[in-house]
Amino acid sequence: MKRERGYFAHPTAVIDAPCTIESGVRVWHFSHVREGAFIGEGTNIGMNVYIGAGVRIGRRVKIQNNVSVYEGVTLEDEVFCGPSAVFTNVINPRSAVERKDEFRPTLVRRGATVGANATVLCGNTLGEWCFVGAGAVVTGDVPAYALVMGNPARRAGWVCRCGARLPGGASEPACPACGERYVELKGTLRPRSGSPSV
Q1: Average pLDDT for consecutive 10-residue bins of the chain (198 residues)?
Q2: How remote is the C-alpha of 112 from its chain's centroid?
Q3: Which of 95, 99, 107, 114 is the most buried (most CB within 10 A)?
Q4: Quick check: 145 and 158 in contact, CB under 8 A?
């Protein structure tokens, strides 16, 4: 492992200039960071990860092995991407048809989790602290704090900022793990005012 300008990169990693990699970042074996990418402080890029040109990755993000983050994707602070998660950027790809001018942006908001082997189709927003279950296929926007599962992914409940599933059936559920309280209203969830934070 070698240190370059405040971040660590394994000798097998390929980092194309120019790009911005902040301090405390770790880039592991056989990963590729393309030109124009931005990787925020304290982020961990696992083995065999591809970060596309111009991709923006926030601070303290964890990207596990074999993840592809293609051009047009933005990951905000503290996002978690499980092993082999995939983000797309074209809705109707064909090998014989050039569509680089048709990339659809994907935004993954702060604290969201994308589970192992999940696929996120382009043009969607994953809300803050949502949780995409392993193997899910996301074909639309995901609300903040929502737990989505399946193919296509559907909401199966709510999750706390700490990652624990919230009990169903209550208009003001409390997290069984950390005690944070929430308010559910018209298909949305938000922390209750004065609730302890994680």
Answers
A1: 73 96 97 98 98 97 98 97 96 93 96 98 98 98 98 97 91 93 92 68
A2: 6
A3: 114
A4: yes
